[in-house]
Amino acid sequence: MSTSTTVNGVALERHGATIDAVTNDPGLGRFQFRARNHWIDGGHSRTTIQGFYGAGHEDATRADPFVVDTDEPPILLGENRAPNAGEYALQALAACLVGTIVYHAAARGIALQGLECTVHGDLDVQGFLGLDSDIRPGYQQIDVAIAVTGDLDDDQLAELASLTRYSPVRDTVTNPVAVAIEVTRA
Amino acid sequence: MSTSTTVNGVALERHGATIDAVTNDPGLGRFQFRARNHWIDGGHSRTTIQGFYGAGHEDATRADPFVVDTDEPPILLGENRAPNAGEYALQALAACLVGTIVYHAAARGIALQGLECTVHGDLDVQGFLGLDSDIRPGYQQIDVAIAVTGDLDDDQLAELASLTRYSPVRDTVTNPVAVAIEVTRA
After folding, report:
1. What does residue A4 show for φ and ψ, rounded to 5 degrees?
2. Chain B closest CA to A74's CA: distance in Å?
3. Residue A163 carries which DSSP code?
4. DSSP structure string for B8-57
5. Which of A92, B59, B87, B132 has the fewest CB atoms lying closer than 10 Å?
């Protein structure tokens, strides 16, 4: 008998099949994501995102690359052509938290009607400008407010909050990640 | 005498004026960036980015919000409508490294002709799926290759590499950031 159950837009049989596949062959869990940024002028740059490695092979499902522009607002000497990099970091965190809750809730049979995630990140540009070596360049604090719509009891609400521990971007921002940087002539 | 000098597309007088203003009144350095994500279905969500606080006031230069979609590829149960959150995190890092080098190089009078930044991030979805508590959900390692075009000597190339220490997103990814998450009913 073939069944097809979807919760929160997540196809549960496919989700279960993925878990079974990775459980049976843990090497399938290894993924490599990629982004390539090309400087245009001033604070304006353009990133292309297309291929990645995962589940044992190079993905070939994206016929065209995604194109994502970055710029700065005028006060940071840009022209507001696009969000800045710090805002994209917050967008990555927000989208990851939402996706993580949606997928894990689906696997637990928790149906959601709506999910909104607002992220605020505080930093001090004295760090970026190198004016005070005691001030870090990055975010000093990030505050996330997630508002859930659905028929949920208090235990389920607490469970949704707990599921955010599985978020890759939350972990990447919260805990140290080794970043190796090589600069060469083109 | 009014002068207008632009290096790497960065207006140096405005850059210098920013540094002077923040040096004279360090409170102007405080910024808060924001992103708001709205879940659509499955792995598909939409983020709006518009206002931010900085230099002592709410910014009002963006008449319309930027809209940034996120999705997953089919192997992660999405439909490739947009990059995924992990890829946006890499894009944020790449764009931030490029912008940081461009601005700080300009302030030092180092003219660049081109800059390409490729970022690879390795993770294991066993962490996301909760299959192995010893495997972190986030990136285990991020490798960045920056290729510079321009008339640069070896010392200048080394200096460009060193300037990446000022990158807000590099710092955010490399070092721990406190992320406070509150989940409530809408």
Report:
1. -140, 105
2. 8
3. H
4. TTEEHHHHHHHHHHHHH-GGGGEEEEEEEEEEEETTEEEEEE---EETTE
5. B132
Angle ∠(B149,B151,B157) on CA atoms, nearest 5: 70
Evaluate whether ipTM surpasses 0.95: yes
The reply to whether B132 touches chain A by the CB within 8 Å rule is: yes
pLDDT of A2 above 80: no
Given CB atoms, is A24 within the 8 Å cutoff of chain B? no
Q: Using a CB–CB cutoff of 8 Å, tell me whether B181 touches chain A.
A: yes
Q: Which tens digits make up the pLDDT trace of A37-71? A: 999 999 999 999 999 999 999 999 999 999 999 99
Nearest-by-Cβ selection for A183 from B14, B148, B184: B148
Residues of A in contact with B21 (CB under 8 A): none
Q: Which residues contact B21 (CB under 8 A, 6 or more apart)?
A: B28, B55
Q: Do A59 and B70 touch (CB under 8 A)?
A: no
Closest CB to B36: pick one of A68, A88, A118: A118
Residues B137, A170: C-beta atoms closer than 8 Å:
yes
- Beta-carbon separation of B142 and A179 below 8 A: yes
Full DSSP string of chain B: -----EETTEEHHHHHHHHHHHHH-GGGGEEEEEEEEEEEETTEEEEEE---EETTEE----SS-EEEEE---GGGTS--SS--HHHHHHHHHHHHHHHHHHHHHHHTT---SEEEEEEEEEEEHHHHHTS-TTS-SS-SEEEEEEEEESS--HHHHHHHHHHGGG-HHHHHHHS---EEEEEEE-
Q: What is the pTM of this model?
A: 0.97
What are the chain A neighbours of B130 within 8 Å (beta carbons)? 104, 166
Q: List chain A residues with CB under 8 Å of B68.
A: 68, 83, 88, 91
